[in-house]
Amino acid sequence: MSQSFAIALIGATGLVGETLIELLEEREFPVSTLHLLASAESAGQSFAFRGKNLRVRDVAEFDFSQVKIAFFAAGEAVTRSFAPRAQAAGCAVIDLSGALLLDEAPRIVPEVNASAVAGLKPPYVLASPLSPVVMLACVLAPLVREHTLQRLTVMAALAISQRGREGVTELARQTAELLNARPLEPRLFDRQVAFNLLAQVGLVDGEGQALLERRLVAELQQVLTLPELKVSATCVQAPVFFGDSLSVSLLAGGPLPLAQAQAALVGESALELVEEGDYPTAVGDAVGQDAIYVGRLRQGLDDATELNLWITSDNVRKGAALNAVQIAELLIKHYL
Amino acid sequence: MSQSFAIALIGATGLVGETLIELLEEREFPVSTLHLLASAESAGQSFAFRGKNLRVRDVAEFDFSQVKIAFFAAGEAVTRSFAPRAQAAGCAVIDLSGALLLDEAPRIVPEVNASAVAGLKPPYVLASPLSPVVMLACVLAPLVREHTLQRLTVMAALAISQRGREGVTELARQTAELLNARPLEPRLFDRQVAFNLLAQVGLVDGEGQALLERRLVAELQQVLTLPELKVSATCVQAPVFFGDSLSVSLLAGGPLPLAQAQAALVGESALELVEEGDYPTAVGDAVGQDAIYVGRLRQGLDDATELNLWITSDNVRKGAALNAVQIAELLIKHYL
């Protein structure tokens, strides 16, 4: 492929933005020019890309007609303000903020629903879903190819880096205060998150449903093209810096023998199946890696239709930045 | 009640043993003499009880005919060695180690299956189940009184104190090493547990089932008198010092309206139902308290038969020591 593309990266100064820069270089993405952008207050910093220092500029002053693809890795408000401008300039948008509705910006996990892009017209407006959705979709897709899925129960323990650098700093600060027996004054969270688990992440609606959990379910249904799939999702804030971990129980429409499930998962390029007896964890296995790690695969007790498993992956890398770059790779291969 | 009882406490030097001593004093349990016992290597320490210092003696040299009730809060091997001796001396045994089979030592949660003791003959050999079982049984009992339970999915995030003082020390040590950027050499666990979640607790059998999870399911079925209840259980080691937290999803045989579930739970003395919008956590709510905290009670998405909730409680106190003392209170009230 000799063609190369001008790229804009909005939210370059965040954890996901920085990982996007690394991945574009590491995967030799055909970039002609990389424009690093952020809101006015974050502009001015510099990041290395292919041996040069690139300065982050104010997105408000950017002319999107210069680029073919724009990654939106800043907050929801930034996407809402500037994605329409990028689209109007004929630029493909890949959103990582969750700001756009599912019918405005279909969620894409290239290993699973790459074909969903074929039905769209340019300029393309696509989104990378929540990290647990990337993980679940890659694990479930090979299973639903051969089995009917009736019900899914997911407990997602989210890494603190889902709150960005501020989250990482706050967990470290709280932990240090506690180990030094100093009084704890929580910031960013309304209570102690160090050595604790918070049962609620983000806002909750009048029915007690967390908006994040609703989004997880809707995005997963869209990516798997299973709009009726019953999903019970609970998102918990864990005192873990990087790496989301999911405890998953699924019910199939009929017997789903363990050997069949193993065979379906073992051939998937995105997955690393950890053998019985051992199990993967965020720290030590998933963090810094491209793979989604699957372990503790086991049948239900006296129930051949039930399958239980554990999934862990780097939420910033595979769960966000890498999936977005894979969407861009899909676009340049077939559509741009 | 003017009668008082001589009591033996085996495993007095452990976290649960120490809490048992506190609770016997705090609840004014009618103790005539308290004998603190442990294995030979732990003997010699002293603990305060009702203003006096009691010295811990070697259990191997103890004559169980001196006491009416013996709490076994040491390891499984200690229970296996000495519980038969206590029983032969006519002493009631309350085991907290999990060493005895379910038909040798029925699991009792006094709020739930106190009546199970009525069918037994002295000398009584009873057991306090795993902390998550105490929590689940207290929450589910009021619901199963009015509704059929079809299926239960539980992700139990266990506090490190389930591994005793050694576990607590190891989490603190690992955390300090990491914050000081020193190389980590795990002890007690085979990997980093600080800022991580371990997907497997204890030994796993040839089918990938953890023995602890099998025990959890069997004990819960016994306490609820629902031997056929389908339960999917996953026990995870969390980097939390004290307080187990459970993410629970249950399916009823028919619609289980949220208002009915709330009404069933709100009247239970063992439970503290946290209102919508807020939620309980181990640190700040449960630790040091007698109550089992329930929150995030919510219906399934588009499924009136599904109910999701979060439970947290002090694993050492309510999950172990307090439940055992409540079993003893039940015994002296009706059976001794």
TrEMBL record, chains A, B:
Family according to the record: Belongs to the aspartate-semialdehyde dehydrogenase family.
Organism from which the protein derives: Pseudomonas fluvialis
Every Semialdehyde dehydrogenase NAD-binding domain range: 6-120
Transmembrane segments: none
Phylogenetic lineage: Bacteria, Pseudomonadati, Pseudomonadota, Gammaproteobacteria, Pseudomonadales
UniProt cross-references to InterPro entries, sorted A to Z: NAD(P)-bd_dom_sf, Semialdehyde_DH_NAD-bd, Semialdhyde_DH_dimer_dom
Coiled coil region boundaries: none
GO biological process, one term: amino acid biosynthetic process
The protein's name: Aspartate-semialdehyde dehydrogenase
Pfam entry (one): Semialdhyde_dhC
Molecular-function annotations in GO: NAD binding; oxidoreductase activity, acting on the aldehyde or oxo group of donors, NAD or NADP as acceptor; protein dimerization activity
